[in-house]
Amino acid sequence: MLPAGLSPPYRFIAFDVETANRNPHSICQMGFACVDDWGQIENFSLLVNPAEAFSAFNTHLHGIDAAMVRHAPLFPEVIAALAPLMAQQPVVQHSRFDERAVAAACGWHGLDVPALHWVDSVTIARRAWPEFKGNGGHGLGHLKQALSLQFHHHDAGEDARAAAQVVLHAEIKTGRSFVEILARQAAKFPRAANPHYEPFE
């Protein structure tokens, strides 16, 4: 299930989900953008069988339907394989939905919620670009335009990569690591707080 060539731990992993319907537990795709000490991104995504119906609205949004996930693994199998990777470094989400979706899916399937250190790239973006408040905002749609990001919105892998790029751009903009921008947990994740690469040159 994990792609070959991954080299954890990373400075951080950006993470995104898509859902089959309005229920946050109905995860049908997970995306990962693994960022190393030099700012290189290893990007992958996988489909998840939510074992429930897709809404027409959600399928229109992300293009995933029941036929595409018929032979995909169920959430318990996916989270069992990926939680150990995710737990080794901060997990970046753009807004808090992804964290809620994982918790909801764990509850739905009777699983313990994995102990992950979640970081919100919306908060990072707000601190890096306060001028966007009331002037486009800090959603991925506006940041795509403002930061000249190239990605396909509402694909979990693409959105995860975009969230990773937002963090890296914010570090360049502020001259600080994202942990320093958030001013929290620096001692817990020294790799994230003190990258070996020099993003500010």
Automatic annotation (TrEMBL):
Instruction: List, alphabetically, the SUPFAM superfamilies matched.
Output: Ribonuclease H-like
Q: Which residues form a coiled coil?
A: none
- Which Pfam families does the record associate with it? RNase_T
Q: Can you name one GO molecular function term for this protein?
A: exonuclease activity
Segments forming domain Exonuclease? 11-176
Keywords on this record? Exonuclease, Hydrolase, Nuclease
Protein name, UniProt field:
Exonuclease domain-containing protein
Tell me the organism. Cypionkella sinensis
Question: What is the phylogenetic placement of the source species in the record?
Answer: Bacteria, Pseudomonadati, Pseudomonadota, Alphaproteobacteria, Rhodobacterales
